[in-house]
Structures are given as C-alpha cells and as structure tokens.
Amino acid sequence: MTRVSAWRSRDFRRLWGASTASALGGEIGELAMPVLALVWLGASAEELSWVRVATFLPYLVLPLWLGVLVDRWRRRPLMITAETVSGITLLGIAGAALAGWLTVPALVAAAAVLGAMSVLHMLADFSFTPQVVSRAALPDANAKMTATYSAIGIGGSGVGGALVQWLTAPFAVAINGAGRLLSVVLLRRIQTHEPPAEAPDTSARQQAREGFLALLRHRVVRALAAEATIWNLGNEVFMLALTVLIVDARDDGPLVLGLIFMAGGLGAFLGAGISARLTERFGYGRSLITAMLVGNTAPLIGVLFSSDTSVTSLVVLAAAFFASGFGTGIANSQAVTVRQVTVPEELRGRVNASYRMLSWGALAIGALLGGWLISAVGGWLAAALGTAAMAASTLPVALSPVRQMRDLDDGAPPAAE
After folding, report:
1. Which domain holds residue 235?
2. 9: helix, coil or strand?
3. In the prediction, which pLDDT does 231 show?
4. Residue 46 pLDDT class (50, 70, 90 cuts)
5. What is the pLDDT of residue 184?
6. Is 6 exposed, middle or buried (0-12, 13-18, 19+ CB in 10 A)?
7. What is the pTM of this model?
8. 4 domain residue, yes or no
9. How far is the C-alpha of 224 from the C-alpha of 176, rounded, in Å?
10. CB 36 within 8 A of CB 208
11. Angle made by CA atoms 231, 336, 31, in degrees to the nearest 5
12. Closest CA to 325 of 280, 272, 386, 285
C-alpha cells in the first residue's frame, strides 16, 4: 500500500486549517461549558447532565434527516452555515454570562443549537473530504486530521484549563466562538467544485431509511457503529463523573482536568502518527482491533487504581488517558477511512448520518444515565461502570469481518449480506 500525501491538495490544506481552527476552539469549549454551568451558574450534577443531554440529543434525532440534506446539497455551504451559527451562538453565551443574564435553561437551549450545528458540520465534512483529496491520499488525509485533533487535545486541553482557571469560563467560550468564525473564513476559500446532486426519485423519509438499512446490512460499518455506540455511552458517564469529582473537590479543578485531558491528547497524537505504518505492516484488521483493545480498556484500569483526587490518583488517571488516547489515535484514523471507502459515494452522507445517530446519540443517553448514577451510587462507582462499558465496546469489532481485513479492498466484498 503506497501512501500519497494529502498536502499536495491546496484545498485540503484549507480544509485542514478550517478544521483546526474549529477544533481548537471546541477543545477549549469542551472544558469551558461544564465549568460555566458548575461554577459560574452553580448548576448541580443533574443540571449539568441536562446541558450535556441538550448538546448530544440532536445526534439522536437529527442525523438521518441531515444526512439526506448532505446527500442532496453541496457540502461546503452547509459547513459554512453550521460554523457561522455556532460561532454566533457561542459569542452570545459568553456575552450573556458576562452581563449576568445567562441561566441554566438558556444554556441548555444554546447547547441544543450547538449540538444541531455540530451534527450538520460533521456529516458534511465527512462526505466533503473524499471530494477534496484522491482515494489514494484519503488515508493520509484522515491520519493528518486525526493527528491534528490529537495535537489540539494536547495543547487545547491545557490552554483551555488555564483560560478557564485564570480568565473564567465566559472568555474561554468566546474564544471557542472566534475559532468557529475563523473556520468560516478558511472554508470560503476552498475552490473544489461540487457538482449538484441529482434530483432524488424518492422521499426524504425513504432516503433516510435507505441509509439506515445500508448501515445495518454492511457488516464492517455495522460493527464499527456498535463499538462507537457502546464506547460513547460509557465514556459520557465516565467524563461526567470525572468532571464533577475533580471540579467539586479541588480549587484548581479546571486546570487539573485540562492537564489530564492533555495526556490523552498526547497519546492520541503519537498513536495517529504511527497509524499508517502499523496498517502497512499488520493490515487494517489486526492493527485496528489491537489498538481498540488498548485504548478502550485503559480507562477502566485507571479508575480501578484511583479512589480520590489526590496527586497519586490523578497521575494514574493521566497515565490511563495517555494509553487510551494512544490506542484510539491509531484506531480512529483507520476506522474513518474504512467507513469512507467501503460505502458508495451516493450513500455516504446517509450511512454516516445513521452511524452518527447511533454512536453520538448514545452520548445523550449517557449524559442522562451519568447524572442519575452520580446521584445514586456516587462519582467513583459511576466512573467505574462507564469505563467498564468502554472496555466491552471492542467485542463487536473483534467478532466481525474487520479482523480479516488486510487492506481497504478487503472491506467491500464481504460487507453486504
């Protein structure tokens, strides 16, 4: 398998720049939003869970319909619209917080808008990237994107924690909004021609159904969707519990939480960096499943060897985040490429929409479950239950035809039943 550099495409460099600006702002906002709710607004764990539910509920109810939209419309204008609305909403949240007007219900409503725009952007971006680069350069493009997101996880989490700690959460949210608007500027400079989609012969409902059924019939993508769904469900419980435990117990909670996230980002960056080489040597199946075993199991081990927010426990958690990030950094870039090239282009948006509905929709359920578990059994037991689900998520892929894949050409023939 010969690697082709995606950097040869000028439009890919612009797409990469737009994604980087958006992701950097999002990484800062990922920490700022919970702290804004917990510290600035004095929200309880249950109220924080509702903010998280509002963020991820659009992934459960909107992807099928937005997937149809992505397959019917040009993708770049949809990405620009999503980033513009997100940027304005985030700046509005920051302004309302500083003015003393922000309430928990208003934050929940804003989180729902941000979640909806995130769904639209993600679906459009997934289908747009293969149009910007050639098939031969696609694995390199996805590896570079994954490595960049991981690098942002290294610096962004630490910077986000410091900004929240020293400048307060509203200013960190405002920086997130500025990053989204910078992304809009770069997206508008992309010149890749997108031909208009052919007028569909079927209704939007039928098209959405076709995409969902195509995912269920595709043994490879179906297994990856099951893994991502279970992992996200457990991870949301874990992250909600960890955030409440650390922020409530320590005055330097936002900074400490950011440093732990940095460890995960560093691991993911290193993992993404060797992902292509592992694929060349061992093939997609073996390297993907091994990486998932490492990445999905490490958080459970970290929680089992932690019992409080002392320095020792925090170091153990940081090490677990590093190992988890390393495994997921390898696996994520491979899994994205497999999903992109084994699904026909005319179905790509809708199949990915179905995939996101299952996998990211689980985050809304995980947020509800996490808020209930923290109140019912305590933060540490809730974290342990969440990480146990993450560890179990590897099974659907390990038992699927993915384990037999040597290269991308092995993904298509056995995919349909």
Report:
1. 9-191+204-410
2. coil
3. 95
4. confident
5. 94
6. buried
7. 0.69
8. no
9. 30
10. no
11. 50
12. 272
Q: At 319, which amino acid appears?
A: A
Nearest-angstrom CA–CA distance, 138 and 37: 39
Q: What CATH number has the domain bearing residue 389?
A: 1.20.1250.20
What mean pLDDT comes out for the span 55-72? 79
Q: Do the beta carbons of residue 272 and residue 332 sit within 8 Å?
A: yes
The type of residue at 121 is H
**Residue 74 domain-assigned (yes or no):** yes
The kind and range of the H/E element at 17 are helix 10-35
Domain annotation covers residue 122: yes
Q: What is the mean pLDDT of residues 331-349?
A: 72
The overall average pLDDT reported for the chain is 81
Angle value at C-alpha 394, between 343 and 338, nearest 5 degrees: 20
Main-chain dihedrals φ then ψ at residue 218, nearest 5 degrees = -90, 105
Among 106, 115, 143, 96, residue whose Cα is nearest residue 26: 115
DSSP 67-88: HHHHHHS-HHHHHHHHHHHHHH
- DSSP code string of 221-235: HHHHHHHHHHHHHHH
Which of 41, 45, 19 shows the shortest CA–CA distance to 32? 41
How far apart are alpha carbons 7 and 200 in whole angstroms? 35
CB 72 within 8 A of CB 197: yes
In a domain, 198, yes or no: no
Quote the number of domains for the chain: 1
Given a cut of 50, whether residue 416 has pLDDT beyond it is no
Say which residue the tokens 């304005």 belong to.
Answer: 88
Place of tokens 């949301």: 236
Residues of 36-54 as b/e, b for ≥16 C-beta within 10 angstroms? bbbbbbebebebbbbbbbb
How many angstroms separate the CA atoms of 3 and 71, rounded? Answer: 29
Contacts from 273-282 at CB under 8 Å and sequence distance 24+? 273/147, 273/329, 274/330, 275/143, 275/146, 275/329, 275/330, 275/333, 275/334, 276/3, 276/139, 276/140, 276/143, 276/333, 278/330, 279/1, 279/139, 279/334, 280/1, 280/3
Tokens of 306: 């932690």
Mean pLDDT of 321-339: 82
Of 295, 257, 261, 266, nearest in space to 151 by CA = 266
Q: Are the CB atoms for 332 and 218 separated by under 8 Å?
A: no
- At 188, the amino acid letter reads R
Tokens of 177: 């909004």
Provide the pLDDT for residue 88.
95
> Where does the pLDDT of residue 150 fall: very low under 50, low under 70, confident under 90, or very high at 90 and above?
low
User: Which of residues 196 and 137 earns the better pLDDT score?
Assistant: 137
